[in-house]
Write a structure and sequence with these properties.
single chain; about 350 residues; mainly alpha; two-stranded antiparallel sheet; 12 helices; elongated
Amino acid sequence: MISKIGLNCIASFENLATLETDKKVNIIYGLNGTGKSTFSNYLYDRACTEFSSCTIDGLSDEIIHVYNRKFIQDYFYEADSLKGVFTLSKENKEAEEKIKNAQIAIEKIQKDITDRKHLIKELNGDLNKRRQQAEDNVWEIKTLFTGGDRILEFCLEGLKGKKEKLLRHLASIKKPAQKPDKTAEILKKETEALKGEKAQRYDTIPAINISASYAESNKIFQKEIIGNENSTVAGLIKSFKNSDWVKKGIEYLPVNIGADAAICPFCQKNTITNNVAYEIRNYFDETYEKDIDDLKTISTEYNEAINSILSIEKYEECPFVTDKKSEFENLYNSALKILNDNSKSIKKKSSLQVRKSN
């Protein structure tokens, strides 16, 4: 049984105040603010740190039951709509609190949904206005180019009936990376040349093709054309670095040489014997002759192909070339220069000089 309670450093009890009793039933009464609730709160929750300076004597294992406002707050839930109506148990109160918080969250979400719907409606309204403005602008441009001379009207076939259809068609076309360099007037002029009353049909401008272009990649140009290395005069001829000169001199070699040496067509001295003449002729063997003949054939065919290209005057008969005469002349002359340079390289290769082709 409680025999003594000491309250200290709590609420209105700044200093230690004690209540001593030897009665089983005790009534505590007083004015508001004198500490009655503090007594009941201490007995309700003695472990609370607020009551660390308070004491109680006489208790053994008795259970203290306290029914005060603190108890009601912990174990009862008071409905907002019906004052004074309670539901029992701490668990019910917690459930009711969760339900209440959930309802508040739901209301917030519903408000957010309503706000977002309102925003979407505003954005859709703005989008529709912008789309309508775009349709009107495009239609105005369409009207400009389908009226009057109507030269470019064919570009809008099937798109002149509805604004929406025309805008969708234009939106589907990928925007070019660079601004077109042709104005509407240039397009009109080109269209008139193709479809107008004065339009004329012209043949396709022939391409500048080289029919012997295969020759440019012939493996013979990667080959060093030399005579028979086994000939005893091979080293001497190579040292001249002009086998063409030696080759042409062969026709001046005497056919039948007696015991004495014949006159050399190269040095004009009596140095040519039958053996020397043989070795000179043997240097220019079949392989050598075949390579030279192949080069000459390639050179002939390549030159014939170049000569078959139309003259620049033939191209300039076309009005489309005339409009870009300077640009076309530069390209035409550049192409011919490359071809003629190739022809010179082939001719140089076939001149019988002992060297590697580039």
